[in-house]
Amino acid sequence: MKQNKLVKISNVVEADQCIQYLLRRPKMEMVGLGLIYGRPGLGKTTYAQRIAFQRNYIYLRLESMTTPKAFSTMLLTALYRKFDLGNFIPTGSTNNLFKLSMQILDEHPDTVIIIDEIDYAFKLDKLLGAIRDIVDETLTIIILVGMQNAKDRLSQVSEYYFDRCNAFHEFKPPTKLDLRLLADEIMDIPIDASGIERIFEHAKGSLRRAIKIMHGMETGEFDINTETVPAHLLEEVQ
């Protein structure tokens, strides 16, 4: 199975259209804030990581313990590495680190930042406020990535904040055409139409599960002519 491919399935195409829309927006009239969301297993994080790598965007992933100070440090470190500003990363207060990040972003107006697991920030007003300040005060594009209820939660947290989002895409379950494209691009063995039907049937709307089944077909763990898929190929890791 081929690794690290970003296959142009429907979610990838539509998510990319969101980013392109923000890149082409009238920068002095619209802030560069977008949201990609959807239930687990649909490829949001894979898309975010691979598009960031391919296009030299900054990719940040929040965690349950991420504080505003940790975010400021993470952001500043990523900016220093991206723009080759030296090996010594400044330290100091949250405010000072954030101000330095803002100065760098102001000097590099075409920067795109993807922030994954944005759901962890919904209870941290200062962290959400920092992200809002970035898009308000610089020309930076920020793409938030969250779970299926992220759009509703963002609206509940702050309608004013929600109104800043100028591009949305909800990741949806893969279609049979998506699975056909994926199999053709990443599998090392040919799969006919009946094989795609079996993958679609057993994946039950999960892209992650579909890829595991494809891998099982390649390794011989799953024979397309059998009725039962091994249980471990159907397990979902959240």
Write the layout of secondary structure elements.
Elements: H1 10-24, E1 32-37, H2 44-55, E2 58-61, H3 68-82, H4 94-107, E3 112-116, H5 125-137, E4 141-146, H6 150-157, H7 159-162, E5 165-170, H8 176-186, H9 193-203, H10 207-219, H11 231-234
Helix pairs in contact: 3-4, 8-9, 9-10
Task: Write structural notes for this entry.
- This protein has 238 residues and is an alpha/beta fold.
- The protein folds into two domains: 10-170, P-loop containing nucleotide triphosphate hydrolases (Rossmann fold, 3-Layer(aba) Sandwich); 176-234.
- The chain has eleven helices and five strands, in the order αβαβααβαβααβαααα.
- The chain has helices at residues 10-24, 44-55, 68-82, 94-107, 125-137, 150-157, 159-162, 176-186, 193-203, 207-219, 231-234; strands spanning 32-37, 58-61, 112-116, 141-146, 165-170.
- It has a five-stranded parallel β-sheet, sandwiched between helices.
- The chain is elongated and about 60 Å long.
Strand content: 5-15%
Summed up, the helix count is 11
Q: Tell me, briefly, the overall form.
A: elongated
| Secondary-structure class | alpha/beta
How many beta strands in the DSSP annotation?
5
Number of structural units classed as domains: 2
Based on the coordinates given, report the CATH architecture of the largest domain.
3-Layer(aba) Sandwich
Task: Report the uncertain regions.
Answer: none
Largest sheet: 5 strands, parallel
Q: Give the helix proportion (percent range).
A: 40-55%
CATH superfamily of the largest domain: P-loop containing nucleotide triphosphate hydrolases
Q: How do the strands line up in the largest sheet? A: 2-3-4-1-5
Distance from first to last alpha carbon:
22 Å
The name of the CATH topology of the largest domain is Rossmann fold
Mean pLDDT level: 92
Rg calc: 20 Å
The level-1 CATH class of the largest domain: Alpha Beta
- Following the backbone from N to C, one meets helices and strands in this order, namely HEHEHHEHEHHEHHHH
